Structures are given as structure tokens and as C-alpha cells.
């Protein structure tokens, strides 16, 4: 397979973009990333003209795949031709917020921002402002974007920043616990209960393999936060309007968080984030309340139109049934291949998420540390490049989730299972 154009573009990019990319994970594939020319349904075509089955799907936003329906395309074109944005409010922002509030029972009000990171930054500030407390609890192996409060490593209250450039004093306000460990979170609340503003949790860890919650875990988080006057913040940037369909992961698990962060899918492929929750909390945000929040591009009309039309399409068609059925076929096929060829590995995922993680600790990984023991070198250096040769584009590192879209087909699934079989 000739990939010379990608190599040459990467070489050129290294001269003007730090690390050759605009988001770190894109440069994880060795020795150079694949540069994209265009998408086509469930496939992606690289700068050299090679075509791959695409399971990256924009890292999650592309619910409908690369071929957007006519309704989405015409809404985007109309908005663009009428002047892309104004710095003044538009009706489509209300319509989008109404759609979210109609489908997600915990959400009465929405504030739109421009990325998942912005959403979690604002949610943490809102939780601190609302409760008058400073500490937040996050899960080890969880990810909430490139923000100062959650880029931490360590255990319990012994955390340090996980990146240079973040003052150590920021990490002092962030506590970490292992996901799915009821004892650990209970202890943290026993010790710091009246200092904790919020527990911030992905309902399913989706940036460290795919780790599903044990039965009762989210109920424990819900009870502890409620008992201690802290907020439960579900980070549904990945799971929102993907896992659990239109009611999101919180609907699937039957949990009512105080705040939810959204991103990815709700922008229909354009930059977006959002915070949603009860009126009483949301109205603490400026200009209704005092917790400052603002953004020139927030509620961008083109994004709003693309997101709303995408979600409307999903509400009116068999989008989730198709994706989830196909993903189930894929996971079943991969389970057979793994049992036969690599019984030391695990197939993980639910709804339209899937991944083969290169580790097996018991039945399925229970937390970030289980997944962290994966065989990263083998995955990066041998497995992923070989899958590319077999025409299958997997996520850029061993830990990111992979996404089935509405545009994927049974043929994509069969080809992928075959490629895993050959490669493993
Ligand atoms: N939260 C979660 C759970 C995420 O997966 C991500 C990104 N993958 C973010 C927040 C940050 O979103 P963004 O990259 O849009 O800033």
C-alpha cells in the first residue's frame, strides 16, 4: 500500500504544527499519521487514494457516518449562505436546547459552548460556584478534555498535575478514585464530604478502553453526592445521544445527574459542547447568575443547525437500532476471533462502541488501571499498522473507543472481522 503522500504531508506539517498535528492523539500512529482526503459513508479515503473501513468516525461526532442526509446538508448550506454567525442570538439555539431538554429528563436548561473541554471547564466552575466548595472528584483513567482541573495523576487526595504548565496548587483541589470502586469513593466522601463540589464521571469510561459501570456503581455515586450536598456531573461528551439513544447513558442506567456535559454528536460534525441541568443550577451561570461563562462562537448557527438536523434524523429513523445491531454483530465476531487467536485479550463495548483491548484481567476490565496494563507496544507497532494494510482504520491509540455509525454496513463488519482474524 502506497502511503507516500501521508508521509510527505507529515514531514511538511512538522515544520509548522507542533508534533505535526492540532490534537495530540492524531500523531500517535507510527511512523506517521494517515492524512485524509475525504470520507465516503462508513469509509475514509487517504491522501494517497487508499480506502479504509473507518472506525474512528471523527472520534465520535459522526453518528450518521460521512454521508450526511440531505436535511443536514441543506440546513448547513442555508445557514452558511446567510452569513455564518452574528454574535447575536438566533432561534435555532432555542430549538436545539428544546430538543435536548425534551429527550434528557435531567436537563431543563442548556448552555452551548464549542468543545467538550469547554463544557467540562464550565461545568466544574458552575459546580464550584453553586456549592461554594472547591474540590472535585474524578475517576482514574477518566478523561474530561484538556483542562487544568482534571489533568491529574495520583491517588485520592495525593494528586499532581499530569502536564507541565499546570500549577500544583490546582491539582490539590482534585481527588481521584478508581472507577467501579464503591469503597474508595465512600472513603473520599467520609474524609472530604463537605469540601466536595462535584463528582465528575464518564458514565462509561471511553477513553481508556471501554469500561462499563458495575451494577449499582452509579447509584452509589448518586447517593453519596446527594447525601453530602455535592453535584453529580455526568460527562456524556462521548456517550450523549449515542449510548442509550436519545435518552443518553443516563437513560440507559436510570440515573439522574445534576449536570451533564455534552459534545461530539450534538454538533453533527461541527465543533460543539454543552452543559445541561436543572434550572435552579443552570441559572447560576451569567447573565442569569454570577458564575461567569461566555464565548464568541457559542451557539454557532451552522453548528446548531447541523446538530439539530442530525438529532432529528436520528429521532425519525432507525439510526440507533441499525448501529447497535451492527456493533453487536461486530463484537460477537470479534469475540470468536479473540477466543480462537488471542484468548489473552478482551472484546469490550456496548451500544455502538467497540474495542479489542490487549489485556484480560478476569472477565472484563473494571477500571482504568486494568486497561492500562494493555500491551501498548504490540498494538502500536505491529497490530494497528497491519490492520491498516488490511484496509481497516482503527482509533489512533490503544485506549480510545471506536465507533459504529449509521453509514456502516454488514460488509464493513465482515471485512473488519476478517482483518482482525488475519492480523491477530
Ligand atoms: N469529555 C470526554 C468524556 C471526552 O471523551 C472528551 C474528548 N474525547 C472531552 C471531554 C473533550 O472534548 P473535546 O475534545 O471536544 O474538547
The average pLDDT is 97
Low-confidence stretches: none
Q: What small molecules does this complex bind?
A: 4'-deoxy-4'-aminopyridoxal-5'-phosphate
Structural class based on helices, strands and sheet pairing: alpha/beta
Q: What proportion strand?
A: 15-25%
Q: What's the arrangement of strands in the largest beta sheet?
A: 4-12-11-10-9-5-8
* Form type: globular
Q: How far is it from the N-terminal to the C-terminal residue, by CA?
A: 20 Å
Radius of gyration: 21 Å
Beta strands, count: 16
Largest sheet: 7 strands, mixed
Helix and strand sequence: HEEEHHEHEEEHEHEHEHEEHHHEEHHEEH
Helix count equals 14
Layout: helices, strands, pairs:
Layout: H1 4-16, E1 36-40, E2 43-46, E3 51-54, H2 70-81, H3 91-103, E4 109-113, H4 116-131, E5 135-140, E6 152-155, E7 158-161, H5 168-171, E8 174-178, H6 182-192, E9 196-201, H7 217-228, E10 231-235, H8 248-253, E11 259-263, E12 273-277, H9 279-282, H10 301-316, H11 319-341, E13 346-348, E14 353-357, H12 368-372, H13 376-389, E15 392-393, E16 402-403, H14 410-423
Parallel strand pairs: 3-15, 5-8, 5-9, 9-10, 10-11
Antiparallel strand pairs: 1-2, 2-3, 4-12, 6-7, 11-12, 13-14, 14-16
The chain binds 4'-deoxy-4'-aminopyridoxal-5'-phosphate (PMP).
Describe the structure.
With 424 residues, the chain is an alpha/beta fold. A seven-stranded mixed beta sheet has the order 4-12-11-10-9-5-8, with helices on both faces. A four-stranded mixed beta sheet has the order 1-2-3-15. Strands 13-14-16 form a three-stranded antiparallel beta sheet, with helices on one face. A hairpin with a 4-residue loop joins strand 13 and strand 14. This is Glutamate-1-semialdehyde 2,1-aminomutase. Its EC number is 5.4.3.8. One of its GO terms (biological process) is protoporphyrinogen IX biosynthetic process. Belongs to the class-III pyridoxal-phosphate-dependent aminotransferase family. HemL subfamily. It catalyses: (S)-4-amino-5-oxopentanoate = 5-aminolevulinate.
Amino acid at each position: 500500500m502506497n502511503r507516500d503522500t501521508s508521509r510527505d504531508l507529515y514531514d511538511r506539517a512538522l515544520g509548522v504544527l507542533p508534533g505535526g498535528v492540532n490534537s495530540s492523539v492524531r500523531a500517535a500512529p507510527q511512523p506517521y499519521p494517515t492524512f485524509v482526503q475525504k470520507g465516503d459513508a462508513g469509509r475514509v479515503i487517504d491522501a494517497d487514494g487508499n480506502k479504509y473501513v473507518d472506525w474512528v468516525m471523527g472520534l465520535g461526532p459522526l453518528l450518521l457516518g460521512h454521508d450526511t442526509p440531505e436535511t443536514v446538508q441543506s440546513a448547513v448550506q442555508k445557514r452558511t449562505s446567510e452569513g455564518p454567525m452574528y454574535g447575536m442570538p438566533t432561534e435555532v439555539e432555542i430549538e436545539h436546547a428544546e430538543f435536548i431538554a425534551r429527550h434528557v429528563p435531567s436537563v431543563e436548561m442548556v448552555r452551548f459552548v464549542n468543545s467538550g473541554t469547554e463544557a467540562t471547564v464550565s461545568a466544574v466552575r458552575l459546580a464550584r460556584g453553586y456549592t461554594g466548595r472547591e474540590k472535585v472528584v474524578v475517576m482514574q483513567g477518566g478523561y474530561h478534555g484538556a483542562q487544568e482541573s482534571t489533568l491529574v495523576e495520583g491517588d485520592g487526595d495525593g494528586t499532581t498535575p499530569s502536564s507541565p504548565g499546570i500549577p500544583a496548587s490546582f491539582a490539590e483541589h482534585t481527588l481521584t478514585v478508581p472507577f467501579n470502586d464503591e469503597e474508595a469513593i465512600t472513603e473520599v466522601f467520609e474524609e472530604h464530604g463537605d469540601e466536595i463540589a462535584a463528582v465528575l464521571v464518564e458514565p462509561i469510561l471511553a477513553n481508556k478502553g471501554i469500561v462499563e459501570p458495575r451494577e449499582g456503581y452509579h447509584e452509589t455515586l448518586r447517593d453519596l453526592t446527594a447525601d453530602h450536598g455535592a453535584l453529580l456531573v455526568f460527562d456524556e461528551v462521548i456517550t450523549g445521544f449515542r449510548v442509550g439513544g436519545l435518552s443518553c447513558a443516563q437513560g440507559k442506567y436510570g440515573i439522574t445527574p445534576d449536570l451533564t456535559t455534552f459534545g461530539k454528536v450534538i454538533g453533527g460534525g461541527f465543533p460543539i459542547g454543552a452543559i445541561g441541568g436543572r434550572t435552579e443550577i443552570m441559572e447560576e451561570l451569567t447573565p442569569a447568575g454570577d458564575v461567569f461563562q461566555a464565548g464568541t462562537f457559542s451557539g454557532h448557527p451552522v453548528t446548531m443547525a447541523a446538530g439539530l438536523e442530525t438529532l432529528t434524523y436520528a429521532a425519525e429513523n432507525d439510526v440507533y437500532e441499525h448501529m447497535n445491531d451492527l456493533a453487536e454483530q461486530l463484537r460477537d465476531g470479534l469475540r470468536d476471533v479473540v477466543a480462537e487467536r488471542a484468548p489473552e485479550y478482551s472484546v469490550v463495548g456496548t451500544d455502538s462502541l467497540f474495542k479489542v483491548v490487549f489485556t484480560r484481567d478476569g472477565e472484563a476490565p473494571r477500571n482504568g488501571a486494568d486497561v492500562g496494563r494493555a500491551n501498548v507496544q504490540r498494538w502500536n507497532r505491529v497490530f494497528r499498522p497491519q490492520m491498516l494494510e488490511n484496509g481497516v482504520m482503527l482509533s489512533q491509540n490503544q485506549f480510545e473507543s471506536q465507533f459504529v455509525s449509521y453509514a456502516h454496513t454488514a460488509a464493513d463488519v465482515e471485512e473488519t472481522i476478517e482483518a482482525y482474524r488475519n492480523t491477530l
